[in-house]
Design a protein that fits this description.
The protein contains 14 helices and no strands. By secondary structure, the protein is mainly α. It folds into two domains: 89 residues; 213 residues, Alternative oxidase (Ferritin), CATH 1.20.1260.140. The chain is globular. The N terminus is likely disordered. Bound molecules: fe (ii) ion (2 copies).
């Protein structure tokens, strides 16, 4: 029908008369309001071309008031304002109740419920973690190992750990601070590899996901330990300064030598396993025995899928198993070439 109308319009000498006839012809074919709206732009386009639109002819057409209003807006060039945004599906405002995370507290997902894949340890795996050490081979390994030993020695002295302090306050503060540092290498390494992939326009060989998983896992260790601590202003300042220095230094180091950095983290994780093993001994027969019965935080129980009513000792066993996993992952990545494929699949 439109083709027939168009031909008639193009051949017409008295175009404004033909336009009036064309609109009259279209009305019977417009089965609905929407069909007429759809055909209006073509009519208006033609009216602009002829530049001799006969207003009398247009107004004589028997159009409904809503359509006439739209036609008037088309003529005025304000047709973009015809639609009312709130009436369109994709502009509709969400209600408070309908948005997860913005509603009342009970509608928010619990912390750790939306997490990257990570290992869930069996009872056997939790109790089969041992302190291990990989002998440094070559200058890179020795630099990494000495760097970790020096850093640990300084922190042990400052925190009072090396002077025999073993109370709960020392343990919680120590673990909170260490986990704020432990979450940095995975994120920085993932970022550097991601940017290198973009910059050099080449594949990453599947390392990034493992590094991000490690970073989030360490951050979850921090979230768990923070259930037992309200950080002071002094503590926060210490974390801020340390993060600034460590992020800068580790970023440069990773750009220069990923192998050195993964070996450094591998040795750091060896120390983490030593620390958590020492804490477990304190829980078994030392100053921390109340953690055998102190209930573990809900976030820990949901994150590691621990049994209901699990105690802090179960939580520490899970964290230690994570650290032992980071230990082997980072020593493995350090021994690979930059373009070797990462052998760890998501969640492994
Ligand atoms: Fe950790
Ligand atoms: Fe770790």
């Amino acid at each position: 029908m439109m083709a027939r109308v168009t031909v008639r319009l193009l051949l017409a000498k008295d175009s404004h008369t033909i336009l009036s006839q064309a609109v009259r012809q279209m009305i019977p074919y417009a089965a609905s309001h929407n069909a007429l709206i759809t055909s209006m732009p073509q009519v208006y386009a033609y009216s602009t071309q002829t530049r001799s639109l006969n207003n009398k002819a247009k107004e004589s057409v028997n159009l409904g008031p809503h359509i006439q209003e739209n036609l008037k807006k088309f003529r005025e060039g304000s047709h973009e304002n015809v639609s009312v945004p709130e009436e369109l599906q994709h502009f509709r405002k969400s209600t408070e109740e309908g948005v997860k995370g913005n509603g009342p507290e009970e509608e928010k997902p619990p912390m750790g419920a939306v997490a990257l894949p990570h290992p869930i340890w069996s009872e056997e795996e939790l109790h089969s973690v041992h302190v291990t050490h990989r002998n440094p081979e070559g200058i890179v390994d020795k630099i990494a190992y000495m760097g970790v030993k020096f850093t640990r020695g300084c922190y042990d002295f400052v925190s009072g750990y090396s002077r025999g302090r073993q109370d709960e306050k020392m343990w919680v503060s120590r673990l909170c601070f260490l986990e704020t540092v432990a979450g940095v290498p995975g994120m920085v390494a993932a970022m550097v590899r991601h940017l290198t992939s973009l910059r050099k326009m080449r594949r990453d060989h599947g390392w990034i996901h493992t590094l991000l998983e490690e970073a989030e896992n360490e951050r979850m260790h921090l979230m768990v330990m923070l259930q037992l601590k309200q950080p002071s202003l002094f503590f926060r300042l210490g974390v801020m300064v340390t993060q600034g220095v460590f992020v800068s230094g580790f970023s440069v180091a990773y750009m220069l030598s990923p192998r050195l950095c993964h070996r450094f983290v591998g040795y750091l994780e060896e120390e983490a396993v030593i620390t958590y093993t020492k804490l477990l001994k304190e829980i078994d027969s030392g100053a921390m025995q109340h953690w055998n019965t102190l209930p573990g935080p809900d976030v820990a129980i949901s994150y590691w899928k621990l049994r209901p009513g699990a105690a802090m000792k179960d939580v520490i066993l899970a964290i230690r198993a994570d650290e032992a996993h980071h230990r082997v992952v980072n020593h493995t990545l350090s021994s690979l070439k930059d373009d070797d494929y990462n052998p760890y699949k998501p969640g492994q």
